[in-house]
Amino acid sequence: MSRVRVTLVTALAGMALLTACSSASNEAGTGDQADKQQAVPASKAKPIKDLSQAHLTQALPGDGETLSGYSLHGDKSVTEGPYCNASPDADSAPAGWVRGSDSSYEYNGSTTNMAHVAICLFDSAGAAHTQFAKWTGTKPDERHAPKKPIGDENTLVMISDDSVYGYVRSGNANIRVRIEGGAAGDPSGTQAMLAATLERLQQLQEGKPATATAADVQAATRQ
Prior knowledge:
Blueprint lengths: L2 H37 L2 H4 L7 H7 L10 E3 L4 E2 L18 E11 L2 E13 L2 H12 L5 E3 L11 E4 L3 E8 L2 E8 L7 H18 L8 H9 L1
Antiparallel strand pairs: 1-3, 2-3, 3-4, 4-8, 5-6, 6-7, 7-8
Helix pairs in contact: 3-5, 5-6
């Protein structure tokens, strides 16, 4: 074999080796990236962007979709802008507010111990974050992180003498939950309501029916 042909064969062999190494490296990188994506909590992988008024109302848990013992008190409501503000005396909507819905729940037919859920949608994640910070800043009581991550902001559960407050932000949406009465010593119900409401929003955003229930979320968390 001539020296030219030997050189050519050697060069081709080297190129083939480099191609194989590059391919293997790319495959390894793809695998690493897939692992990273799988490691991201589902709630963070699907932030809420924009949903209709009907979707927000559907996302609120109904009878049989909330915690055991709770049932709807009246009807689900269209939330006015001031209700999404941090101050109960606010007479205007917070900056960037678009729409919202809220509902209340009786416990075993009593209005003494009730649960309340509100969804507030904003025109940007930044506006939602600003209001989330104002919400959580109004309750300086003890704060508890959930057992499992929820949403883009850390969920904060505030324990007071007679109520548990929970807040979560996912993308452009904020969710607020308050459970009154005997649940004040156990934040798991509030966390379950937050997680179920967020999952219902995500299901609707994907064009699916809202099927997540707070009872199922609570049972899964306790396993």
